[in-house]
């Protein structure tokens, strides 16, 4: 039955300087909207904090000429004989403070992208920076329109641009648009990747949030595609897919999906596994998993935990089983879990959708005996990604 199912669905918190008093109301509204956004990926992972810092520097540097500059950029955008240069566009993106400015940026990037590419020698990548601007001002519709615009073909073809766009759509509940964008992304295969890992996470997160039979069918079809090409999904992608199956009344499918997770003891994997076991009536199999974290000597916040709603599901399954021995064992385990602080009030859904943080930068200056025998590349120059120099890929902690 299970195999059949798988086969069948084959700024800062406030800005210190506002240069145009006439736009104060609009700007305050945009800033307020941007602060309401809680990313699935953290701001640091998406480069939004770096964008805000660069923006503040340019605002300070051009405080006396910003309005004249914007006026000149409007003229250049409307005149065919004038070109839009890299520095023009870079400054305008970071000076934007209202809807009118954002529309000017869109006009500029369309002209910039259509200019003779042989005349462009710079290596600055604009796609992620423009997407960060849209994210900063919470403009999901504009971001999606620009992503699909024929005049901007190739402009946003970077993995980070995809990730920022889909995160923005996700935080605004535009889940169908995420699936539409994913169909486009698969066709582009940037860097030879048809299924970028962070993009897959966001697509399965959208399916999870939609929580319908159709979204489960879509997720399982995607899961089979990933399996067929040997793609190993990130842990968060695994738990979103399994969580969706569980919510749609398919705990057996959830358990099968969870076997793909490398770290079977990770909190969301463990909680989902216990909940699914209880749902399929295998309480005896769930109890050893509950018991496995007892007696550990780990302090918060690294202490292994179970969600309160998961424990309640197990308790309900135990009551249905009506077995005195199992009931006694569960009560003993629950009491000890509570005593040792292994049960938390947050529910499983909150943990599944918690913010994905950027991993810390590892210190390369380790004693020689702790270094591997692999070739070292510390002295190599790292490429510019969307205008900001980075040393590590975002979301690497999600690979476990």
Characterization of this structure:
The chain is mostly helical. Among the domains are: 26-194, no CATH class; 263-357. The chain contains 20 helices and four strands. It has helices at 2-8, 24-36, 43-46, 48-61, 66-78, 86-95, 99-114, 127-136, 140-148, 159-171, 175-188, 197-210, 213-228, 235-247, 251-258, 267-279, 283-291, 308-321, 324-339, 348-352, and strands at 306-307, 343-344, 384-385, 388-389. The model is unreliable at 1-37 and 362-400 (pLDDT under 50).
Distance between the termini: 30 Å
State the low-pLDDT regions, or none: 1-37, 362-400
Count the DSSP helices. 20
* Helix/strand structural class: mainly alpha
Q: SSE string, helix = H, strand = E?
A: HHHHHHHHHHHHHHHHHEHHEHEE
Oligomer designation? single chain
Radius of gyration: 25 Å
**How many strands?**
4
Q: Please outline the major beta sheet.
A: 2 strands, parallel
| Strand line-up across the major sheet | 1-2
């Amino acid at each position: 039955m299970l195999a059949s199912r798988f086969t069948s669905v084959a700024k800062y918190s406030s800005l210190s300087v506002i240069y145009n008093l006439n736009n104060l109301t609009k700007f305050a509204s945009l800033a307020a909207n941007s602060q309401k956004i809680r990313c699935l990926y953290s701001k640091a992972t998406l480069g939004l904090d770096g964008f805000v810092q660069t923006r503040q520097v340019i605002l300070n540097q051009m405080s006396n000429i910003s309005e004249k500059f914007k006026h000149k950029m409007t003229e250049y955008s409307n005149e065919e004989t004038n070109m839009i240069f890299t520095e023009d566009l870079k400054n305008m993106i970071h000076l934007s403070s209202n809807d009118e400015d954002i529309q000017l940026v869109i006009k500029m990037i369309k002209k910039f992208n259509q200019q003779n590419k042989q005349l462009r020698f710079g290596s600055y990548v604009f796609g992620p920076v423009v997407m960060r601007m849209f994210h900063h001002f919470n403009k999901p519709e504009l971001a999606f329109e620009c992503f699909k615009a024929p005049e901007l073909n190739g402009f946003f073809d970077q993995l980070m641009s995809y990730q920022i766009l889909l995160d923005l759509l996700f935080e605004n509940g535009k889940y169908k648009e995420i699936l539409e964008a994913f169909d486009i992304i698969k066709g582009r295969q940037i860097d030879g990747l048809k299924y970028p890992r962070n993009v897959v996470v966001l697509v399965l997160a959208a399916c999870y949030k939609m929580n319908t039979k159709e979204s489960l069918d879509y997720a399982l079809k995607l899961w089979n595609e990933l399996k067929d090409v040997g793609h190993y999904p990130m842990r968060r992608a695994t738990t979103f897919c399994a969580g969706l199956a569980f919510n749609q009344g398919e705990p057996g499918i959830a358990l099968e999906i969870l076997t793909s997770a490398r770290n079977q003891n990770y909190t969301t994997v463990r909680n989902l596994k216990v909940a699914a076991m209880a749902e399929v009536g295998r309480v005896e199999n769930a109890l050893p998993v509950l018991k496995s974290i007892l007696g550990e000597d780990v302090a918060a916040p690294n202490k292994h935990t179970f969600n309160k709603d998961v424990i309640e599901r197990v308790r309900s399954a135990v009551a249905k089983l009506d077995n005195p021995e199992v009931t006694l064992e569960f009560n003993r385990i629950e009491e000890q879990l509570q005593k040792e602080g292994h049960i938390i009030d947050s529910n499983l859904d909150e943990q599944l959708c918690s913010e994905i943080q950027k991993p810390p930068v590892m210190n390369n200056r380790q004693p020689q005996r702790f270094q591997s025998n692999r070739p070292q590349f510390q002295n190599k120059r790292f490429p510019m990604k969307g205008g900001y120099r980075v040393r590590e890929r975002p979301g690497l902690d999600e690979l476990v």
